[in-house]
């Protein structure tokens, strides 16, 4: 179980992974779609253009059994971006590094799901907000584009504590303890953006 991390690294770890290496993030139990709601230009660093993306993901339970999922805002583990879906499929994922933050497990185990977790019945959906710092090398072209994300939004509990939650909540559904991988998300890169201060 990977820990959730609190602070974004100012420099992205440009470790690229092929799609096959990320197979554990793909599942037929959920359908993850999304919408880019805001793009902010944060400035340049050498030949790199830095952007903040705000994205809202919609996660639908497409399985036959309830799942129990965290509905907290998510952090992006990997992303890839391109001008079209065909180009996207040829891209490798960029891995984002995070600063780890230790967190103690709660002293007790609730007998039913509590915030930020809630049961999601088959056919139901919920939303996850994502903030992503995107690095684009070289000149940035405006117009249609697509982005794909692999995100996680779990509290930083230990594997042992998640095992206890899984057992305690089993009658309410299956606890979701892995990442969410989106379908390609279409958006339009603006023609020109004013530079703004980004955290």
Number of distinct helices: 2
Q: What are the segments in which pLDDT stays under 50 over at least 5 consecutive residues?
A: 1-26
Q: What's the helix-strand series?
A: EEEEEEHEEEEEHEEE
Task: Give the strand tally.
Answer: 14
How much helicity do the residues have?
Answer: under 10%
Mean pLDDT: 85
Strand content: 35-45%
Taking the alpha carbons of the first and last residues, their distance comes to 28 Å
How many distinct domains? 1
From the spread of the alpha carbons, the general shape counts as elongated
Largest sheet entry: 6 strands, antiparallel
Compute the gyration radius: what is it? 18 Å
Coarse structural class: mainly beta
Description:
The protein is mainly β. It has one domain (7-99, 114-185). The chain contains 2 helices and 14 strands. The chain has helices at residues 85-90, 159-168; strands spanning 7-8, 15-17, 30-45, 48-61, 67-70, 75-82, 93-95, 98-99, 117-120, 125-137, 143-152, 174-175, 180-181, 185-189. The strands form 4 sheets. Strands 2, 6, 7, 11, 13 and 14 form a 6-stranded antiparallel sheet that branches. A 3-stranded antiparallel sheet has the order 3-4-10, with no helix packed on it. A hairpin with a 2-residue loop joins strand 3 and strand 4 (48-61). It is elongated and about 55 Å long. The relative contact order is 0.31. Mean pLDDT is 85; it is low at 1-26.
């Amino acid at each position: 179980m990977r820990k959730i991390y609190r602070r974004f690294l100012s420099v992205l770890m440009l470790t690229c992974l092929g799609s096959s290496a990320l197979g554990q993030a793909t599942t037929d139990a959920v359908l993850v779609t999304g919408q880019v709601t805001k793009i902010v230009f944060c400035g340049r660093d050498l030949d790199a253009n830095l952007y903040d993306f705000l994205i809202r993901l919609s996660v639908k339970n497409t399985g036959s059994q309830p799942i129990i999922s965290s509905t907290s805002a998510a952090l992006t583990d990997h992303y890839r971006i391109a001008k079209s879906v065909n180009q996207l499929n040829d891209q490798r994922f960029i891995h984002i590094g995070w600063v780890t933050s230790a967190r103690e497990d709660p002293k007790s185990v609730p007998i039913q799901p509590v915030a930020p977790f809630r049961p999601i019945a088959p056919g139901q959906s919920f939303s996850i907000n994502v903030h992503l710092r995107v690095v684009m090398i070289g000149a940035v072209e405006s117009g249609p584009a697509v982005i794909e994300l692999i995100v996680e939004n779990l509290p930083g509990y230990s594997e042992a504590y998640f095992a206890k939650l899984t057992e305690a909540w089993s009658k309410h559904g299956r606890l979701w303890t892995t990442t969410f991988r989106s379908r390609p998300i279409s958006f339009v890169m603006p023609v020109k953006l004013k530079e703004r201060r980004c955290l």
